[in-house]
Amino acid sequence: METDILHKLIESAALAIEILAVIFITCAIFYNVIKAAINFSKRSPEFFRKYKDNIGRSLQASLEFLVAADIIRTVIIEPTVQSVIILCALVLIRTFLSWSIIIESENRLPWKPKYETDSDTFKN
Predict the structure, then answer these.
(1) 10, 34, 41, 49: least CB-packed within 10 angstroms?
(2) How many distinct helices (H) and strands (E) make up the chain?
């Protein structure tokens, strides 16, 4: 009885994290599109790069939420060999997506340090 309640509670927590990730993606995209529309008239050279950076960071954060939900669901709720293999595949796919986002938005490889454009110092 108690394990059923705990099982449902953990399943609900994983679902809540996934819903939070979807809400985060949606809000971030709407916010950045509105911000881009407002600042479109400026047309500075940094305009498009900042837009891509903001969208990329939002997607990376939401991918972390989705991985956390998958880990909770796989490890705690359904710890079978098949579910662990599926989790590994999902983590690899999301890692690849995260790296692709970094490469696209920041024009650097994920393991390279992020430099400021005008100097060789690291950004904080």
Answers:
(1) 41
(2) 3, 0
